[in-house]
Design brief:
It is built from 4 helices and 8 strands; from the N terminus they run H-E-E-H-H-E-E-E-E-E-H-E. By secondary structure, the chain is an alpha+beta fold. The protein has one domain: endopeptidase domain like (from Nostoc punctiforme) (endopeptidase fold (from Nostoc punctiforme)). Strands 3-8-4-5-6-7 form a 6-stranded antiparallel β-sheet. Strands 1-2 form a two-stranded antiparallel ribbon. One of its GO terms (molecular function) is cysteine-type peptidase activity.
Length: 140
Amino acid sequence: MTICDLHHKKIFLTARSCVGSPFRHQGRNPAFGLDCVGLIVYVAKSVGLIPFDPLDYKRIPVKSAISSHAHIAGFPLRSKSDISPGNIVILKFGKYLEHAAILSDRGIIHACEKYGRVVEHGLNDEWRSRIISVHSFPNN
């Protein structure tokens, strides 16, 4: 296993440790709650990165907000055909709503308002079709 593989494994295992944490809009602490961006920020900090932490987003979606923040934060864009565990996927729901998740060896891990907590589930064709961009965590 390469150092890069270990880095990606640490990312998704850290995200997996948050499964069951409550959902909280703009939450940044798994003990009190996380949202989809908060999960990414928490994981980044846990693996030694200092990410750009946007707190200026609202529940009402703004087109391309999460994609823009990922770019500003320095998470390199990857090809959608080259996804692997430890990557960040940006998903689109409806016309404007974007959502972020971390790929794992089992599917995706994300803070889901519908279920009220951080969840992990498979990446079936429906979820895969919602992917609009893929980003990797920078190596620290």
